[in-house]
Design goal:
With 311 residues, this protein is of the alpha/beta class. It is built from 13 helices and 9 strands.
């Protein structure tokens, strides 16, 4: 690992079994770093698991959890680190060099953030498998704002299920936002790119992470995505919209399913139609009452918080 002081941060909530799997993968790493678990009032053994593996534990009330604000809380409370790696409790490292590889791009002082590669969980369904293969290719790349003309919104793509941030870049771009419903990672990456930092994709830094979303869960998530993009129009204005990427995704999914999964073609059509509908509804969220948005959203507590009406 580079001569950097690094902290790994894991938000948790009732995930004892998943956290055990993640901690076991961390124990096999060649690199040794400090681990901080920030737990949202778990009622199972999550905190016990974290302490068993030697992690520093911060506990917050579940009502205080915020995708951006909770992560920034740890950054603010632990300022003596050069970089922070973020993972989620349902991810785990695929080999013993993941931590080394996720920070290696910081050798370039212009790199402000690094996104690792995500492979699907071993029990992933074909839709979850394709989503990972589409979004996380096998080739590494370092992106700058100059790549926006070619990559569009994918220029700012990053996922806090396995990503690293240089503290200097994070602080100079005002850190993780509190006001977004999700995609705090893309928000930060976009701000870094606009400020002149680079964002790296490290294909050799590999974790396992995926979701077998139901049709309704996928609808809920894409509604939240629509809300995010509606409230942060500067991202689409600077990097381009999601329409072209969506069409590429659908075409890629049908090629991935192929004839061997032809029985899933109708579900794929319905699934993608629902995602488009949900995203469009999210973009029009200001026309909807909060009680309706709460029902449509994946992150329902957001609509009970201080940012439900916007910034």
């Amino acid at each position: 690992m580079l001569a950097l002081k690094v902290m790994l941060v894991i938000p948790t909530r009732n995930g004892a079994d998943e956290l055990t799997r993640l901690m076991e993968s961390l124990a096999k790493q060649r690199a040794s770093i400090d681990v901080c678990v920030i737990d949202s009032s778990s009622s199972d053994r999550t905190v016990d698991v974290a302490r068993h593996y030697g992690a520093l534990v911060h506990s917050i009330d579940v009502s205080d959890f915020n995708h951006g604000g909770t992560r920034q809380l740890i950054v603010d409370q632990h300022p003596n680190y050069d970089a922070y790696i973020f993972m989620t409790q349902d991810s785990y490292l695929a080999d013993s060099e993941g931590l080394d590889h996720i920070v290696a791009p910081f050798l370039d002082p212009a790199v402000g953030a690094v996104c690792g590669r995500q492979l699907p969980h071993l029990d992933a369904n074909p839709f979850a498998m394709h989503a990972r293969f589409f979004n996380y290719p096998s080739c590494s790349r370092v992106k700058s704002i100059n790549d926006a003309a070619e990559l569009g919104i994918k220029t700012a793509f990053i996922s806090n299920s396995f990503a690293a941030y240089r503290r200097e870049a994070l602080i100079k771009t005002d850190g993780f936002p509190k006001h977004v419903v999700l995609s705090e990672d893309m928000y930060v990456a976009a701000r870094m790119l606009i400020a002149g930092w680079k964002v790296a994709y490290a294909a050799n830094a590999v974790c396992r992470h995926s979701h077998n979303y139901s049709l309704m869960e996928e609808f809920n998530r894409y509604f939240d995505q629509g809300v995010f993009h509606a409230r942060e129009p500067w991202i689409r204005e600077r990097f381009g919209g999601t329409g072209g990427e969506g069409l590429r995704f659908v075409a890629s999914e049908f090629r991935f399913l192929g004839l061997s999964h032809w029985r899933l073609w109708p579900e794929a059509l319905i699934r993608n139609a629902l995602k488009l509908l949900a995203y469009k509804l999210g973009q029009k969220e200001r026309l909807l009452p909060i009680r309706f948005k709460r029902r449509l959203a994946m992150h329902k507590r957001y609509w009970d918080g201080p940012f439900s009406e916007g910034k």
